[in-house]
Amino acid sequence: MKTLCMELNLKTLTENKKFWESKHYKLPKFDVKEVHEITKHSPQWVHFGTGNIFRAFPASICQNLLNEGLISSGIITAEGYDYEIIEKCMRKYDNLTINVTLKSDGTVDKEIITSITESLCMNNAKRKDMERLREIFRAGSLKLASFTITEKGYNLKDKNGKFLKIVENDFKNPPSMAESYIGKVASLCFERFKFEKLPLTLLSMDNCSNNGIRLENAILEFAENWVKNGFAEKSFIKYISDDISFPCSMIDKITPRPSDKVLEILKNDDIADIEPFVTEKNTYIAPFVNGEETEYLIIENNFKNGKIPMDKSHKKGVIFTDRETVDKTEKMKVCTCLNPLHTALAIFGCLLSYTKISDEMKNESLVKLITNMSRQESLPVVVNPNIIDPDEFLSEVINVRFPNDFMPDSPQRIACDTSQKLSVRFGETIKSYINSKKLDINNLKYIPLVIAGWIRYLMGYDDEGKKFELSPDPYIEILKPIVDKLRFGKPDNSKEVISEIISNESIFGLNLMETPLYKKILDYFIEMNSGKNAVETTLKKYAY
Fold it and tell me: Tens digit of pLDDT for each residue in 230-261?
């Protein structure tokens, strides 16, 4: 006889504990009702950005701390962009999430995350939610506001260097009327300033260089403009600088879109109503999250008003250290040992019609490309952060993490916003070669091959000459008219197009036309655009 399907909510978790245990779900070791009550009256941690990475990592960290008795208050999440997530993915399920860890051996761990006690819309149209957020920011108990709002969330200016219209409007209006994401956060800081100037830590956990500095600069921009326009006292600027800390961090955990395989596992466990959905703002989300087992969160030890003891949990992965070490670790990951490899696989994965990163790792040419690029060209410029060994980290990426067949990550997802990533993932290494007295930029072979591959990708034709859809990228509207001068299988206009693209310093962080890499990029591109199967042929020729 088939088991009755179980819904995901606090009632079934409480009344049907044996059901969940029989299906091998890890359950909270703390009193969920008591934690909810404590958090309501004495909030300590609020998190902005209610996406997959938050529920798979920061919320899981909070769960571990609660399980181990290291804290007594849970985590409150606020969403300032895609409000559908709150109604359809959080409140509908009593803020519970099923966290599924996809191990490289093909097994899974399943845990019910109950550490999220409230979910709020940071939206002025939702008055009750905004008043609750203001109440939270007036609480003396509040220690930490953390963020996973993506790199784009910190941008106050457009690609031409002008303030976004929504930001300009926020400058001209009182803080309580702010509509932009950072503007709304700054207005909550203003609320805390007015209420006894209470200290606080704002911690960016987003995957971008100097994330804490970017967040601080963005908040200060609002403070300075509100002071200039008479909406805030001058001491508000001093409060932001003196009483709020903005630690830098490095986060590393791959959390792809909800997997059909995981959905099947949960349905076979007789869990009801857990299908993924796509919001109107194109967020792929579900009441479950799936992510890899490997995770790192390196945080600058700079906290005001006390700190959440994330580094004290028995579960390793969170380390408090100094800013210099965070910076070294971030550069190791973003410039050398993971992100450049991901970008290379994304570009060539789209061209070679792969839909999974793990499947690309069965292509010998691609494995050779990312291995040789990272070990021969990038590792020589890395400064060892000492808390993580770069060589061991890189080996884990190539041999364990990327080949994990159970991870449903796609090159199409990783290829999003590539124009925003190239300056850090490749430009910084190229600059290191230019400035080095020991390294010769003429020896770079694989990095220019990837850059040429990206321009070939921008044509929107795969290796068989079939059209494919480019992943979203804010520079597409600028680049497409340039690339449209090219024809598949023809060398016409190659020099003109390559020159125009690689001279763009806003993409690469430097003018590549002024380096010896120009001719290599042009030659590689011409070979990759010489006809059908030319990309695969070029890879086999140069990746070894």
Answer: 999 999 999 999 999 999 999 999 999 999 99
What pLDDT was estimated at residue 209?
81
SS3 29: coil
My answer on whether 354 and 272 are in the same domain is no
* Domain span holding position 232: 10-321
384: helix, strand or coil: coil
Counting beta carbons within 10 angstroms of the beta carbon of residue 210, is it exposed (0 to 12), middle (13 to 18) or buried (19 or more)? middle
Token pair listed for 419: 């124009």
Specify whether 357 is located in the same domain as 231: no
- Tens digit of pLDDT for each residue in 119-160? 999 999 999 999 999 999 999 999 999 999 988 899 999 878
Using pLDDT thresholds of 50, 70 and 90, give the confidence band for residue 1: very low
What are 50's two structure tokens? 């209610």
Give the CATH number of the domain where residue 196 resides. 3.40.50.720
Closest alpha carbon to 250 in 134, 436, 385, 349: 385
Domain ends where: 287, 321, 355? 321
Residues 21 and 483: their CA atoms lie apart, in Å, by 56
As a whole number of angstroms, the distance between CA 123 and CA 181 comes to 9
User: Is pLDDT above 80 for 336?
Assistant: yes
Which helix (H) or strand (E) element contains residue 102?
strand 97-102
Instruction: Examine the domain organization and report whether 262 and 202 are in the same domain.
Output: yes
pTM above 0.85, yes or no: yes
Give the containing element (helix H, strand E) for 32. Answer: helix 32-41
In a domain, 508, yes or no: yes
Tell me what percent of the chain is helix, strand and coil, each rounded to the nearest 5. 50, 10, 40
Do 122 and 23 fall into the same domain?
yes
CA dist 500 and 496 (Å) reads: 6
Number of domains in the chain: 2
Q: What tens digit of pLDDT does each residue of 412-471 get?
A: 999 999 998 999 899 999 999 999 999 999 999 999 999 999 999 999 999 999 999 999
Q: Is 206 within a domain?
A: yes
Same domain for 371 and 495:
yes
38's CB contacts (< 8 A; 6+ apart) are 72, 73, 74
Same domain flag for 269 and 196: yes
In a domain, 4, yes or no: no
